[in-house]
Amino acid sequence: MSELFVVGISWRTAPVAVREKLAFRDEEVAGTLREITATLPVAEALLVSTCNRVEVYGVTKTGLDATGPVRGFLATQRGVTPADVAEALYDHRGSAAVRHVFSVASALDSLVLGEAQILGQLKAAYGVAAAAGTSGPLLGRCLERAFGVAKRVRSETAIARGAANVSTVAVDLARRVFGDLSGKHVLVVGAGKMSTLAARHLYASGAHEIVVTNRSPEKAEALAAEIDGIARPWAELERLLVEADVVISSTGAREPILTRALFKRVTKARRWRQLLVIDIAVPRDAEPAIGDFDGVYVFDIDDLEKVVAANLAERAKAAEHATRIVVHEAGQFEHWMRTQGVVPTIRALRERFARVAEGELQKTLDQLARRDYTPAQQREAVQRLVQLVVNKLLHRPTRALREAPPDEAGLRAEILCQLFDLSPVGPDASDAGEPDASDDARDPQAALDRELAEPAPAERKAVT
Amino acid sequence: MTDPERLLSVAPSPAFWVAVVAYAAATAALLFVLAGHARLRPLALILVGIAFVAHGTDIGWRGTQHVHPAQSVREALGFLSFIVTGGYLLASTRYRLTLGGAAVMPVSLVLLVVARLTPAGAAPEGMSVLGRIHISLATLGVGVFALASALSMIYLLEERALKRKRFDALAFKDKGAPLESLDRLSHRLTWIGFPIFTSALVLGAIWVSRLGVSIDRPEYPLAMVTWTCYAALLVARQAYGWRGRRTARLTLVGFGGALLVLLIYLVRRMAG
Questions:
Q1: Given this model, what pLDDT does residue B174 score?
Q2: For residues B162 and A276, what is the distance between their CA atoms, to the nearest angstrom?
Q3: Taking all residues of chain B, what is their mean pLDDT, rounded to a whole number?
Q4: Model confidence over B145-164: pLDDT tens digits?
Q5: Are the beta carbons of B231 and B253 closer than 8 angstroms?
Q6: pTM confidence score
């Protein structure tokens, strides 16, 4: 029987120096998937390769093990000796694989717990597999369900709530003060990398424009060009502060730049409009006392990192609930998979029954069409039809039961009792004579009775 | 004409009890949302909606019994809480005002219960059309000021939490509304409430002078103090660009005066 499996490497098991050796470029993925399904005992496959994980999700060909070959493939395909990555690679099969896929999609296995990026990456990987023709019904169903589980986890738990890095905390704070950021002016003082990131996030969140100022006009120009901002001379700082709504400061100055004396003039000129000051510099650019002015909110790097830590702690708490959801959903998916295994049997059973019924029905209809039957004869013909159908349907199971080896007979009888909800009583004492096969058509009920009473061939031999 | 004594002692309708239960349940649900059960927010808003509809039904039913919101200060109080609830519902469609709801709903409940279950006292004397218009406008004006004050109160709490960098504070539970929006909305409501309240004051002064009642009652100067507060607030905002903390405080001072005026009226009515 086919089963789901996962083979991969992630930040949990290997440092980036090892992960990067097994990573795939986007344009390599489709070809690799085709190669996996063509050369390995893998019927369906998907490859997800991000900076934090490289994983193959797949479905084995019936009755074969695929994890070993896929492990070997990943290593040799990337030119790595399998033994070098043997410890870093992990694999899961069956229910463990389903739980893993659901956990990854729900960002429970992400480096930053709850980070939504992985869901988009998984969806993209699924798209590539579908386009390459390597995702089939089982893997497809598993991934679709994983996306549903991820959505449920995000809406029912706090796993993705609260900013998880300093630059998104800056955006969060700006939203708390201003709500909608459209039309808001962002002023970047200095040219630190962190302030660039924060400014980019604010701009992406709808801020109107980003103005950059620096003691060095060249650096200001370069940063402004990098983030689609406008460079302004350092001498205009006070005027720029009056116009800004959000100030992100990260200069390398040894003394504070945003001083109380400066802000006394600035807040008055601003008419106490709200001003958010994010000071990422060390040593700090903003004197803490400027936070005493009405409408001015100052946050330094420690404040931002405290928010990140608090949010991550909240996410960790939410992870317990999220894990319960994943386990429950994986259980339901496994149940679905098990039922999928018996679907062909059910279909064959229905087809056989339908074939028998249709064959006998046709014979009876032909008989009725050929001769003029009285109503009583018609009734008798229908009765005979029903009994014939029942006989034919029960013939094989009855024989199988009667001819079962002694150690299996009890089990078969028990299964039949369960399937047909039977409560058998003691053996019938009636003694039937030797059957006449030609009588069956004339009296199907008698034929059935005889079949039930007749001993199995092995028993008959023993009697004679 | 109907007997004024009978009018004032009309018992509350079944809808009143539905409103009381819904207000209490909405308060509890909003407190649960603040405690972190965010999934209860839709239920809380539905309960506020039920309370609002039941409250409106009770006012309508009293109308069929010839008891109108402008009939007395007691009736006006019931109407005031109805306006406040409606305003909260309206604002909730745009902002997450869970903390505001948790504060406004119990106030609405208390106002409604006070309005319906306190002794009616003696029938008011000299209740003319002018008097009724005065009561209606004063109720409406104070209702709008109540909403502005609720927003200012949330503003002050959120601002304090942000200044002290306490993101886990109650004011920030359930995300909170942005400071700028709270400030702007409170300002708009003050602009709406001020002309209504001014008209109520002018008509009240004319009504009182026609009745020939003594004007040395404490509520009259208190009402003037309230009006002056709001007038100063609007001037400071428009002319001097005041905003934020100081305007929020002034809004609350003004509303405190308005509440005091209402309270004095009510106590006098209850005392007969």
A1: 61
A2: 11
A3: 84
A4: 988 998 899 899 889 988 98
A5: no
A6: 0.66
Please name the helix (run of DSSP H) or strand (run of DSSP E) that holds residue B60, with its range, or none.
helix B41-64
Sort out which chain A residues have CB atoms less than 8 A from B167's CB and list them.
307, 310
pLDDT tens per residue across span A364-385: 888 888 878 888 888 888 999 9
Which residues neighbour B107 within 8 Å (Cβ) at sequence distance 6 or greater? B81, B84, B146
The two three-digit tokens of residue A72, written as one number:
């070997």
Distance in angstroms (rounded) separating the CA atoms of residues B40 and B53: 20
Quote the CA–CA distance of A154 and B38 in Å, as a whole number.
Answer: 13
What residue in B sits closest to A155 (Cα-Cα)? B39
Residue A429: per-residue pLDDT:
44
Helical spans, DSSP H, in A114-160 = 117-132, 137-156
Residue position matching structure tokens 């001020």 = B194
**Sign of the Cα pseudo-torsion (A313, A314, A317, A320, in order):** negative
Residue window 300-359, chain A: list those with CB within 8 Å of chain B. 303, 306-307, 310
Q: Is A297 within 8 Å of A274 (Cβ atoms)?
A: yes
Best of B179, B187, B242 to disrupt the A interface (most A CBs within 10 Å) is B179
> What percent of the residues of chain A are helix, what percent strand, and what percent coil, each to the nearest 5?
60, 15, 25
Do residues A274 and B179 touch, judged by C-beta distance below 8 A? yes
Judged by DSSP in three states, A71 sits in helix
Strand partners, A53: A10
Q: Which of A82, A147, A161, A149 is nearest to A119 (CA)?
A: A147
**Confidence check: pLDDT of B44 > 70:** yes
Question: Does the active-site annotation cover A51?
Answer: yes
What sign results for the dihedral spanned by CA atoms B65, B69, B75, B78?
Answer: positive
pLDDT at residue A434, rounded to an integer: 42
Segments in A255-374 forming alpha helices (H): 260-270, 301-370
Cis bond upstream, residue B124 (ω within 30)? no
> Does residue B204 surpass a pLDDT of 90?
no
Q: Residue B19 and residue B23: Cα distance in Å, rounded?
A: 6
Task: Provide the pairing of β-strand A90-93 with A4-10.
Answer: antiparallel
The band of B122, judged by pLDDT with boundaries at 50, 70 and 90, is: low
Model pLDDT, residue A435: 43
Alpha helices by DSSP H, listed for A4-54, are 16-22, 26-39
Residue A335 tokens read as: 């149940």
Which three-class secondary structure state does DSSP give residue A280?
coil
Q: Which of A161, A169, A171, A176 to mutate to test the interface with B (most CBs of B within 10 A)?
A: A176
**Are the beta carbons of A172 and A163 closer than 8 angstroms?**
yes
pLDDT in tens, A18-73: 888 899 988 999 999 999 999 999 999 999 999 889 999 999 987 788 999 999 99
Rounded CA-CA distance B87/B110 in Å is: 17
